[in-house]
Each structure stands twice: as C-alpha cells, then as structure tokens.
Amino acid sequence: MKILVPVKRVVDYNVKVRVRPDGTGVETANVKMSMNPFDEIAVEEAVRLKEKGVATEIVAVSIGVPQAQEQIRTALAMGADRGILVETADAVEPIAVAKILKAIVDKEAPQIVILGKQAIDDDMNATGQMLAALLGWGQGTFANKVEVADGSASVTREVDGGQETVKLTLPAIVTTDLRLNEPRYASLPNIMKARKKPIETIKPGDLGVDTAPRLKVLKVEEPPKRQAGVKVASAAELVSKLRNEAKVIP
Amino acid sequence: MSVLVLADHDNAAINQPTRSAIAAAGQLGDVHLLVIGPEAVAQAGAKIAGVAKVVHSPAEHIMAEPAAALIAGLADGYTHLLAPGSALGKNIMPRVAALLDVQPISDISGIVDADTFVRPIYAGNALATVQSSDPKKVLTVRAASFDPAAPEGGSAAVEPAQAAADPGVSTFVNAELVKSERPELTAARIVVSGGRAMGSAENFHILDGIADKLGAAVGASRAAVDAGYAPNDQQVGQTGKIVAPELYIAFGISGAIQHLAGMKDSKVIVAVNKDEEAPIFQVADYGLVGDVFKLIPEIEAELGK
C-alpha cells in the first residue's frame, strides 16, 4: 500500500511574524522556514504505518518554491521513500492545492493520503477535506488514532466535547491532530541517506491545474494590541479588583 | 437573497457558536438554518432570533460526506453557505466548497461586504482582508467575533430537506463525549485555564474549585494538553479553541503566541505565574506573580468570602 503525504513549507512556528509596513502581507524574507508541524505528524504516522508493515511506500509532496525541497528532504530523512516537488512561485490556495494533489493521486494511486489538519501560516484547515471531496473519498479529519486493516481505516477524531471514531473505506483521507503521535527527529545517517532519495520536479501546468487565486488579499494588518495592565500583590487584592474595578465577578 | 447556516448541536440543543454564525449570516441576507438531526433540534432552531426558515434533514449522527453532499445540493438557492468554526463546521464546509469549486474562507472575524471578509492568519498575529471572486461564498465563522443571536424570539417554519445520497464511504462507529456540568468553553462567560506549571493531571483539577465557584469553563494551554494534564478539547489557542469570555484567568501559562491567539480578545485577562517575565503578563489586565499551588487555594478562599 502506498501513502501520500503532502508537506508545506511555512514560517517556523517559533518565529514571531511581522506584518509588512505596506500591508501586503507578512515579512517572509530572511525568516526561518520549516515543515508545517501538523505535516510532520502526518509524515510520522505514515512512517509508523510502514514500520508496522501496513504501508510499503511513502511519497512526500510539496507545492511551492524550489527551496520547498528542504521540507521534502526532511520527510525523506524521517522515512519517506521519494519526493515530488510541484514547483511554483505563486501563492497557491487550498482549492488549487487540492486539485494539484488530486492530479498526483490519480497518477500515484495511493490508498491513504495523510495531511496536516491546518497549516500554521494561513490557518485555513481546508485542504484535506477539499481533496477528499474532489476524489469522492471518505475523510477522517483531526485524527488522534488511525488503524488500518482489511481495506478500511478506523479513525478516531478530536471533536468538541471529546472524540468520535469513524470507519472509512479505503482509499481515504486522514488529517492529523496534535495527539496522533510525536514526530521523530531524523538521525544523521538518515539525513545522509535522504540525500540520495529521488525528488521529481514538476509544474502545476504539467498537471493541468489552474492556480489562479480566488481570493484577493486587499490588506494585511496587525491586530489591535493589548496594553499590559497592573500587577497585584495578593489573592485578596486580585479578587477585590475583579469584583470592584473590573466588575466581572459577583 | 438567502444565506444558509449549518447548525452545530448535540442532538438536544443548538450551541452558541451556531447562534454567532446566525448573527454573522444576518448581515448577508435572510437566514435559513440547516438542521441535520432530530426534529426537536429543528424546532429549537426555529425559535432562534433572526432565523427565517429551518431546513431539516433527519439523522442520528452528522457525517461529513453525506452532509457536504446535502449542503452542496441545497446551494443553488443561496449566495452564502456558513457554519460555525467548530470541529463540525471545519470538517464539513471545506468539503462543501470543493464540491462547488469554491475556495472556502475559514474562521471569518469580520464582514466588510458580501464578497469581502476579515480573517486572522498566522495565529492571529495578522488580520487579512480578502475579497472572494467565487460566485458563492463558503464561510466558517469565528464565534468569539460575533455576538450570538438570541435563542428565543423567532418563529420560523420548518421544512424538510431533499435527502442527498450518502456517498457510502464512511460509517459512524462511536463517540466518547465528556459529560460536564460546566459551560461550553467557547460560550462561557468566564474561563479558567491551566498550563504546564500545573504539573500533573491530578493537580490540574485544583482549578475545578475556582471554576465551580465562578461557573467557569476550564481551558488549557497546548503544553498542558501535550503533557497529558488536560484533554485536547480543552485546548485554547491557534490549533484549539478560540475564546473571548468576559474574564479569562490563566494559571501557570507562560503565554506562547499560539496560546495568546486563542484568548487575547477576552475582555479581562488575569495571569497568575511565578515567572514575572512570562509573556502572558504583557496581555494581562491583572497580573499576580507567585506559585500557583499557593495562590489557587487563596483565590478560591477569597471568592468564597
């Protein structure tokens, strides 16, 4: 069984992003870039399924600038077998990403596509669900447990108030939530080995996908800043202020 | 023109995030509410202020695949399709959007006009104003950004929905939902949250005393959830719940940007932390420096006075 894992190059989660003064976006020049954290969880889950003997091959896909090869290499060092880079300098919206991935799925015929539930840059939380719709597949989103057996996947999902389990006929889509696993660090020998693994480079046009954006970004601005308030000295003073000054408790 | 809102409910009541989505939808057109679930929930939906019509489709559980097919099938009569940005809305609406060849707009926090919306990006460190060129808009709504519609006051008609074919690729197995007497996190007037400094799952329950006294919901930082001290559905932050209560009290939470993203729109923020340099103090209206294990019982005692 083949598993496809899309990985996105994003501003590292430790970076405090700054809005560009001209309001066109956030500053991404000279900023540390990394694999989207939820995608690391996706790669890890695929590698575990391979280690269990469920999967036989893992293909990592990234869509973006040539440097997105770095994120594919990270996936290869974690245990993916080969990579595909769909190279484009344009910002690609989830709908176009889903269409590109569908074209790759049509070619590669994986049984499972595991994606991060959301990218920490645009916070859209959409691509997995959209790919599932385009393929007509079932979707197990926000997964904290995945079990694959007998042509189906049992996916336990994080929902409001607890969790629920759904059973999906394969092929199917899984999107990862935080508790699914803890991604491994790639070892040095595996990083070296990953350098020899193949990465194929294609363009969105090769797949017949139009990536023209549907959303026009009119402006990007900083949210209103909160002012730091006062320090209080004791529990008694705090409760008194909440009662008499802020008037938020009885 | 009419707009359709997907109701999120627990088979008994329609939740507050749905009523926030209804309020947002009211800025865009006549609101029709889609209830996938029991008849009684549809009747409750008909009473919500601002709902012009309820469209009802009976079901025991809402599954994304048939629900998205149903909504896409209803889409012809609507300019906008909305849902609350809850786990349910996030699961279903992008699927609907793809079926309609539309780029969804997730988690809107503002409406500029029928085509233009404000949404937070980068964990709320930036606000993007985006204009959609799609003929239909598919939106999820950040509940904390819109005052909810009143649960009573409406008297809408309930009509059955044309059933859509189940694609037959998924089945519901079971749900394990935590029964709680406390208010729902995203709807609570007061939220009491704990961080990694709580130290253990057992210690985390020390917060229950204050939460009970204040009628508050209990939240957690991602660090506390990752450490196993609190369940995932209590997580407040970029990848968890977004809350904006009247009072947010953070115990032992340092204030990573991902956590601040989930609570910085709260009206009053209180931070209790032993590290006086913790970033949480930069957004707190009231800060108290000290050991949470000493201060929590003291605050609880003061609240009882």
Automatic annotation (TrEMBL), chain A:
Protein keywords: Electron transport, Transport
CDD domains with a match to the protein in the record: ETF_beta (cd01714)
A Pfam family annotated for this UniProt entry: ETF
Organism superkingdom: Bacteria
Record domain Electron transfer flavoprotein alpha/beta-subunit N-terminal: where: 23-211
Transmembrane regions: none
InterPro entries linked: ET-Flavoprotein_bsu_CS (IPR000049), ETF_a/b_N (IPR014730), ETF_b (IPR012255), ETF_beta_N (IPR033948), Rossmann-like_a/b/a_fold (IPR014729)
Annotated signal sequence range: none
Similarity section: Belongs to the ETF beta-subunit/FixA family.
Name of the protein: Electron transfer flavoprotein subunit beta
TrEMBL record, chain B:
InterPro entries membership: DHS-like_NAD/FAD-binding_dom, ETF_a/b_N, ETF_a/FixB, ETF_alpha_N, ETF_asu_C, ETF_asu_C_CS, Rossmann-like_a/b/a_fold
TM helices/strands, residue ranges: none
Alphabetical list of SUPFAM superfamilies matching this protein: Adenine nucleotide alpha hydrolases-like, DHS-like NAD/FAD-binding domain
Stretches assigned to the Electron transfer flavoprotein alpha/beta-subunit N-terminal domain: 3-176
Source superkingdom: Bacteria
The keyword Flavoprotein appears for this protein: yes
Keywords: Electron transport, FAD, Flavoprotein, Transport
Coiled coil location: none
PANTHER family, A to Z: ELECTRON TRANSFER FLAVOPROTEIN ALPHA, ELECTRON TRANSFER FLAVOPROTEIN SUBUNIT ALPHA, MITOCHONDRIAL
Family indicated by similarity: Belongs to the ETF alpha-subunit/FixB family.
Protein name: Electron transfer flavoprotein subunit alpha/FixB family protein
Organism, as annotated: Muricoccus vinaceus
Taxonomic placement: Bacteria, Pseudomonadati, Pseudomonadota, Alphaproteobacteria, Acetobacterales
